[in-house]
Amino acid sequence: MTENLYQIFQQRFATRLPQPFLESEDGRVMTYADLDRTTVRYAERLGLLGLSKGDRLVTQLDKTPETVCLYLACLRAGVVYVPLNTAYQPAEIDYFLADAKPAAVVCRPQAAELVAGLAAARGVRHVLTLEAGGGGSFAKGIEALSGEYSDVAVDPEDLAALLYTSGTTGRPKGAMMTHDLLAAKATTLAAHWGWRPEDVLLHAMPIFHTHGLFLSMHCALASGASMIFLPRFDASSVVRLLPRATVFTGVPTMYARLVSQVGLTVEACRNMRLFISGSAPLSPETFHAFRARTGHAILECWGMTETLTNASNLLDGERRAGSVGFPAPGVAIRVVDDQGRPRPAGEAGMLEVRPTRRFAGYWRRPEESRASFRPDGFFITGDVGRLGADGFLTIVGRATDLIISGGYNVYPKEVEAVLDRLDGVAESAVIGLPHPDLGEAVTAVVELHPGRDDLGEAAIIAALKQELAFFKVPKRVIVVRELPRSSVGKVQKGVLRQRLQDTY
Questions:
Q1: How far apart are CA 304 and CA 75, in angstroms?
Q2: Higher per-residue confidence, 315 vs 165
Q3: For residues 276, 166, 57 and 205, what is the CA-based torsion angle, rounded to 10 degrees?
Q4: Is the dihedral of CA 359, 365, 370, 372 positive or negative?
Q5: Which residue range forms the structural domain that includes residue 495?
Q6: Would 370 be classed as within a structural domain?
Q7: How many other CB atoms are there within 10 angstroms of residue 276's CB atom?
């Protein structure tokens, strides 16, 4: 048996109990003592609902201090936390309920009726609500609970969280994250990036996402640091609050928007120690523009849901524009050809990684789990990159058609499946095109059935908004007479990207 992840955090903040853990946008402050007291009662509440070690709890909640407490309570109770993007629509939520088979769902009060209907059809025992300030049925009567609760002991391979990520088939699959993996990554990265108790993290990331939940918040917890906790990213709010912070983590889209703010100056960043970027490639243009405005070189890293952080530029040393730096502590990286043979330094190839601790595979998908690893333990990332002779790693593309738009992963097949069901659409091709703000913009190219010239871009986008999360909905729908095809009839997406690269 081993300590669960919460207990490891608890050891790190044990001497910081009177200190602020989190300050919300409205000025509400939660100390580490408040955090400990609330999470133990939330964990007790989970037990009273009948949830035990290994049960799944699906959440679709706004970013609030209460949501953080619920996540940490799941760690204490050994319950597997399954966060969903708040933008997911009913059909998407239904898929996750069917796949995760949770014992309970906690959602926003305004979604309770809808979620209850979906949950009942899937045999979920409990549907509860939670909102900022402690409202909702889950937190009702929480203060009356005893607070006498013993954290559940876990084995290293016991699951802490299930984070869904789409594969090349477009069907989301749950990456199984263990207590041992998350604890090792949190403590290692906190040390690697020089986190300390005096740090103040300006947190503007979503917390249903690996970057915001694990990379950002775990580092703060593992070092006993504080957070200024914004409900969402707003460039003007971030710039206003920078003088009170020392660390900021974001995706490239956030940095591109910050550069456009008049108030982003060296003076505004006078107390800042570190800016970190991940989740998508950071353009050299944004890197240089940000440094010119602030005096800070952004520390770019590379990772993915399954493996967390694989590579990172150095805290002390050169941070090179366009590069994600060197393998993170405990991670081996290699570049291979399509036959698995090593590529020479400086030549592009498939990136494979072997962390000291790896994720437990994909939920209920043993064959896909096995296929994702080489016999020697290397994970096949699907990304393409090159390792220079000096050790710097550069990501140059993706082997799949994955689109990263504003830091969100979008898999074309999932969008195409919805498009192709629309009356009048003969076939579709979804691609990512260069976009000055989002990095890549989801773009649909459609071929219509004869006689359906009445079906236009606005109508198609309106229909997609009913079935897809906002970040998956194409920014443009381009109608063409005929999609370009290879000699065997396969749509040539590379041709489309070349033709349409100047769309935005």
A1: 22
A2: 315
A3: 20
A4: negative
A5: 403-500
A6: no
A7: 23
Q: Is residue 475 part of a domain?
A: yes
Residue identified by tokens 């602030």 is: 294
Q: What is the mean pLDDT of the chain?
A: 93
Q: Is 112 domain-assigned? A: yes
Q: What percent of the chain stands above pLDDT 90? A: 82
Helix or strand run (H / E) with residue 387: strand 379-387
Residues 368 and 167: beta-carbon distance below 8 Å: yes
* Token pair for 165: 């990520």
Q: Establish how many alpha carbons lie within 13 A of residue 58's alpha carbon, considering only the half-sphere containing its beta carbon.
A: 29
pLDDT (tens digit, 9 = 90+) per residue, 264-315? 999 999 999 999 999 888 888 889 999 999 999 999 999 999 999 999 999 9
How far is it, in rounded angstroms, from Cα 474 to Cα 470? 9
As a whole number of angstroms, the distance between CA 35 and CA 345 comes to 48
Contact 309, 188 (CB under 8 A): no
Q: Are 304 and 177 in contact (CB under 8 A)?
A: no
Give the H or E element holding residue 352: strand 349-355
**In this structure, is residue 28 part of a structural domain?**
yes
Cα separation, 333 vs 353, in Å, equals 5
Token pair listed for 340: 């698995």
CA distance 301 to 407: 13
DSSP state of 229: E
